[in-house]
Amino acid sequence: MDDGRRAIKRLASDVVNRVAAGEVIHRPANAAKELVENALDAGASTIHVQAKEGGKRLLSVQDDGHGVRLDDLPLLCERHATSKIETYEDLKTCASFGFRGEALASMSYVAHVTCTTMARGAAHATRCSYADGKMDRDGAKPCAGVPGTTISVENLFFNVVTRQKALKSASEEYAKILEVLQRYAALRTDVAFTCRKQGESRTTLHAPVAESRVERLQAIYGPAVAKDLKTLEFDTATSKKKFDFKLKIDGLISGGNYHSKRTTFILFINSRLVECAPLKRACESVYAAILPKAEKPFIFMHLQLPFEDVDVNVHPTKQEVQFLHQDAIVEVIQSKVEKILLATNSTRSFTVQTLLPGAERLGGGANAETSGDKENSVRDDGFGVTQAKTPKTTQREKAGGDHKLVRTDANLAAGSLDAYLQRAMNSEGKEHEKIQEVRRAVRERRGQRVEADDTYVCELTSVRELNEQIANAAHRELGEIIKNHTLVGAVDGRKGVWLMQHQTRLYMVDAVKLSEEMFYQITLRNFANFGSQALERPAPIPELALCALKDKFAEPNSWDDADGTMEQVAEKIADMLAEKADMLKEYLGIVIDDGRRISGLPVMLPGYAPEIGKLPEFVLALAEDVDWTDEKACFEALARVLGTFYAIDGAHDDVDDDDTNGTKESPSLRVARLVVFPAMKRRLLPPRRFADSGEVVQIACLERLYKIFERC
Ligand SMILES: Nc1ncnc2c1ncn2[C@@H]1O[C@H](COP(=O)(O)OP(=O)(O)OP(=O)(O)O)[C@@H](O)[C@H]1O
Ligand SMILES: [Mg+2]
């Protein structure tokens, strides 16, 4: 009886191979990458690429490398046949691009492949064609040629119609091929590269062997890129700071005078062209904070890591690798980029074009200056909804279609909910707001740099261990969300309930808990490296302690007189803290003067001070919650107490509740929005427990909402 179940059958090998081929070769640019890598593996010093119809009709890569041994020709396109590794262990030390023996095989299953090869000193070249992994029956034939190898791939996807249809126009496919070649050319300055469309004498890429990478980048991308490149070099081996990993960076990044609307991010890890979204985002965020919003960077980076730290076998197209210490490495690079940019930001130059006599001044003087900004400026459509003025279609395309359109824009201060509410504010106020925000962000970043100066590291083992615990307990996805969120606004500022958006999802977060954790982490990261801010009026500890005790034991009979009176206990607390004054100052920047008064508090974030009304609780917590006998436990508790003290706190706000139109933002909400949340992006490593205990809760997903609306 036919019950709908079908028997399991082994797939024919040609089906298996064609399926596998589809994983390796998606489009002509993948084939170009594989062929160029083979040429480089063969020791080529010149590589010529030609493409017809964007590589769909023909893609040919000619090199002057060592050529293919004639005996090897029958195996050239056989799956899993390679000359580059022999055992799985070889992968650990594999320095060649290839190792799977799959690239040419894949091509031969979805295209017609021809190889012409000639060893140096041979009398002639040899040519043979391949289909479905095998050499043609005609075998290899002698022919005229030059030393090296030329592989031609014709009629890509002739037997996979869906793939063929999915390819873009010839010019788009050609652009992708060119992009791949440009990137390899950027890396290998010792190899000459050319690329042209077949039948055209003009090359689209002409990169002769270059003396330096800047010279090479100029040949590839033109002088606009090359003239403003800053060197990013770093080596853990020569760094003053100690690292748990080995890393060498050789990079060039654009400075403040480079103008582009698109990021170019070229990343090689151990010479492999790879993608690393977190690193790209981290670099972009630094540029976004320091340079004018519309400017996107050009970044070339070659990271060298120990082979054993990198797993190259994680993606069929080899475009991804996994490497150890990713977060720490991203952090190091981010701070290096930041350092370079802050140094260059002060020397920004502007090109001024002289107006021809009689030419009309566009918009005139000051207006002309701001005209570029108008593109990104915000308008109020009368319903309190602020929108970016960029053409709608572009926005939609960028957002990946209507269902992914989101209301807020991470790059606009106006994207936050508060901006939507502040209808009362005039446009001048808004402008001023924006400028202030940018200034603050830059100031904060400068401050961070000073505080998080990578030449500083706390030598205490206990602190190092606590910092390691933080890193080990970090929740990666949550970290991504925090790092790349757009703040929507406060739902209930007094309770610390805020909304943040990440991509198409909306999250409700407990800002008090988040900031508490961030200040805990800042304390440990900056341990023994705090500056202090002086209190306007030093606060006497006995009074603070007494106040806190009275508050805590307000209930009748809750105080046990066996400990003495509250005044006596408050005096004891003051004495005990005065005894610890040196240590508190040196490690935490808490200043206690001779009169047993707190006269200074640590600067955790520039522009941020804790709610002074919490000072009594803080003093009591120092006395009650800290175990002063065990070093590690003591430092951990001190950091916790400081975390609680510095956490944002809407409860102490004295905003008029009768401000009925709800448009007024309290000072603490403002500081939270402008200082604390931006700082979280870089400073907070959210622990795993946050994912379970409600500190961050996803409350909506835009795609799903659209589905619901569609049904309605
Ligand atoms: N341009 C070339 N010059 C010399 N030998 C080549 C060239 N291209 C390919 N070969 C030889 O053909 C073999 C198969 O190449 P193929 O690209 O299919 O596999 P691979 O490079 O070994 O591994 P991978 O699939 O990871 O690229 C190579 O191992 C190499 O010996
Ligand atoms: Mg290969």
Question: How would you explain this protein's 3D organization?
Answer:
With 712 residues, this protein is of the alpha+beta class. The chain has three domains: 13-203, Histidine kinase-like ATPase, C-terminal domain (Heat Shock Protein 90, 2-Layer Sandwich), CATH 3.30.565.10; 228-344, Ribosomal Protein S5, domain 2; 495-692, no CATH class. It is built from 24 helices and 25 strands. Strands 1, 2, 3, 4, 5, 6, 7, 8 and 9 form a nine-stranded mixed β-sheet that branches. It has a five-stranded mixed β-sheet with strand order 10-11-14-12-13, with helices on both faces. Helix 13 crosses helix 22. The longest helix is centred in the middle third of the chain and has 25 residues, at 427-451. Mean pLDDT is 81; it is low at 348-436, 442-455 and 655-662. Bound molecules: adenosine-5'-triphosphate and magnesium ion (MG). Residues 34, 37-38, 98, 103 line the site of magnesium ion.
Task: Please provide a brief summary of the model.
By secondary structure, the protein is of the alpha+beta class.
Helix-strand blueprint:
Layout: H1 13-24, H2 28-41, E1 46-52, E2 58-63, H3 103-110, E3 112-118, E4 125-131, E5 134-135, E6 141-143, E7 148-154, H4 161-166, H5 170-187, E8 192-197, E9 205-207, H6 213-221, H7 223-226, E10 229-235, E11 248-254, E12 264-269, E13 272-273, H8 277-290, E14 298-304, E15 310-311, E16 322-323, H9 326-345, H10 365-376, E17 378-380, E18 386-388, H11 392-399, H12 417-421, H13 427-451, H14 461-473, H15 476-483, E19 486-492, E20 497-502, E21 505-510, H16 511-525, E22 532-540, H17 541-552, H18 566-579, H19 581-588, E23 591-592, E24 597-602, H20 615-624, H21 631-646, H22 667-683, H23 689-692, E25 696-701, H24 702-711
Parallel strand pairs: 1-8, 12-14
Antiparallel strand pairs: 1-2, 2-7, 3-4, 3-7, 4-5, 4-6, 8-9, 10-11, 11-14, 12-13, 15-16, 17-18, 19-20, 20-21, 21-25, 22-24, 23-24
Helix pairs in contact: 1-3, 2-5, 5-6, 8-9, 13-22, 16-21, 16-22, 17-18, 17-20, 20-21
